[in-house]
Amino acid sequence: MNGRLFGLLACFLVLPWSAGAAQCSRGTLIAEVTHVRDGDTIEVGGLPIRLQGPAAPEGDEPRGTEATEAIKQVVLGRELRCEFDGERTHDRCVGICFLDGQDVSEIMVRRGLAGSPV
């Protein structure tokens, strides 16, 4: 992807969040996963994202550590395309993220590590 275009996309989404805006911007972000918080929350290009759809168990719940480790193996350090509709939860934008065209949430559901949509 053209570096200038990537920068524009990143600014479109990251600047409103970092400035403490009440809502996340609509749009698309293509960037590397820089951190995994848990089985359904990742950071892409430094932006915290709650994966839209099924919820993974929390770290202190049964299979929570397994879910976190599984998503790390799938996405950490990889480039994702995340689409946002402007929804926000806590400090995270809610988005659908794709790895090579596959919805990351669906990958977690198929592995039995996410369920019951939020």
What would the principal axes of the Cα set say about the shape?
globular
Question: What is the CATH topology?
Answer: OB fold (Dihydrolipoamide Acetyltransferase, E2P)
Mean pLDDT: 84
Can you give the helix content as a percent range?
Answer: 25-40%
Distance between the termini: 33 Å
The helix-strand sequence is HEEEEHEEEHE
Approximately what portion of the residues adopt beta-strand conformation?
35-45%
Number of separate strands: 8
Number of structurally distinct domains: 1
The first-level CATH class is given as Mainly Beta
Query: What are the low-pLDDT stretches, counting only 5+ consecutive residues below 50?
Result: 3-8, 10-22
Which strand order do you get reading across the main beta sheet? Answer: 1-2-3-6-5
CATH architecture: Beta Barrel
Structural class assignment: alpha+beta
Radius of gyration: 14 Å
Describe the biggest sheet?
A: 5 strands, mixed, barrel
- The tally of helices reads 3
